[in-house]
Amino acid sequence: MAKYLLGIDIGTTSTKVLVIKNNGEMIADMSLSSTLASLNTGWAEEDPIQWWQNITKVVPEILLKAAIKPKQIAGIGVSGMVPTLILLDESGMVLRPSIQQNDARAIEEIKFQQNRTDENDILNRTGSAITAQSIGPKLLWVKKHEPSLFKRARHLLGSYDYIVYRLTNQFSSERNWALESGLYNLQMDDWDETLLSLAEIDRNWLGILHNPSDFVGGVTAGAADACGLAEGTPVFAGSADHIASAFSAGVNREGDLLIKLGGAGDILYCTNDADMDPRLYLDFHIIPGKFLINGCMASSGSLIRWFCEQCTPSEDYADLDQKAESIPAGSNGLILLPYFVGEKTPINDPLARGTWIGLTLSHTKAHMYRSILEGIAFGFNHHIQVLMQKNHEINRIRVTNGGAHSILWRQIVTDVIGLPLEYVAHHPGSSLGAAFVAGKGTGVFQSWDEIERFINIADISQPDMGNHARYKHFFEIYVETYRALQALYPRLTEI
């Protein structure tokens, strides 16, 4: 008998909804754009109410498109960006726009917390260092700059936890949001009271901790009416977007690695051990007992889009790829540091800035475009070098997201890292992982391995080892350039 599952993903640029069938068929998917606001340098905010409004529009349309009745949906899973910060008042109303995971405003608050803690102790307790991604410093920023709003706060949620709340009226905290928040004690499997106190967070603000496939509640009558769903439809805790995406791309065995060529650049490595490093993040895998060591580059596809809008508005990506393809590896000595909104991993420097080095009058826009693709690939390679320093063996690499459509970019990445790259075609991303989680929670799927029904490897890029040898030299300069300029970036900000 056919079973249908609904996956919702709260992404940076859009809210996406997917319907899948238990036989491995993806029935339909739809999305609506979300608006990212940056009112000041380093800020990144979105409106959670817009996410909910998108869902109320898309869900009825996708059910109609797929010719599915609401009662045929066996379960709902939600994924989203982490660790966003959403504050609600006592009545459950949103108090302010979300502060996004790549928001870099809380520089002073990060220093405040770092000066009052021991770095190694924090790493051992929470799995990550205190960085621009941490929730605690951002909340202290809110208290300092928006004190009257802070006083009204009664609930603290992440992006997908907020949607689960809107669907069920239940407050929950999925464990990966908890872990990435920097407020969760990995050893105790609970919120860390010391860190809550340091960030002046009331424990009662936080929802019940859940694993991804845990049942949270049924769809309420109000949410059912708003979304065209059946009242009581089971809703599950869901997962962080990058975790759901990695799982649904088949990165589920020790040594598997995923590179996501999206608006930001994610890289995730599957391991059976909770290996901690201050340069990277640590997450729970969707599959119990496994972990994902991961990193996130603050700008990837968003940087390419910026360049095209500002410098080549009349050309599309295919035109630029064609022109850049004939340029030799290394863009004739032009190197880009892709730190246009600061950088998260592995340097964790919110004050870093985008930098071209080696520009000459002989360089064209095509050289600059290719250097962007190479610079982002160098960023991924930087993460891989950290993993190799930690003696992690890479057995298989898969690549997904919009940038993976570019044959040129895939080839540049594989040439830079020197390893084959498996392209996952028609990959809907996090929404598929969220829908599968709901299926596992309801019992529609018996094994986590059943995700393989949905995965299609369309192409494998093989590295040109001559280009790889050349890129090694450029990568060394890439790393050395940041080190040489590291002390200058704060001075730019001060001025």
Structure, explained:
The protein is of the alpha+beta class and 495 residues long. It folds into two domains: 239 residues, Nucleotidyltransferase, domain 5 (2-Layer Sandwich); 209 residues, 2-Layer Sandwich (Nucleotidyltransferase, domain 5), CATH 3.30.420.40. Helix content is 38%, strand content 21%. It contains 17 helices and 24 strands. The protein has a seven-stranded mixed beta sheet. A five-stranded mixed beta sheet has the order 3-2-1-5-15. Helix 11 runs antiparallel to helix 13, helix 12 crosses helix 13 and helix 13 packs across helix 14. The N and C termini lie far apart (66 Å).
Brief write-up:
The protein has 17 helices and 24 strands.
The parts where pLDDT drops under 50 for at least 5 residues are none
Rg result = 22 Å
Number of domains: 2
Helix content: 25-40%
| Helix-strand makeup class | alpha+beta
Strand content: 15-25%
Number of strands: 24
What is the class of the largest domain in the CATH system?
Alpha Beta
CATH topology of the largest domain: Nucleotidyltransferase, domain 5
Assign an overall shape: globular
Ends: how far apart? 66 Å
CATH architecture assignment name of the largest domain: 2-Layer Sandwich
How much is the average pLDDT? Answer: 95
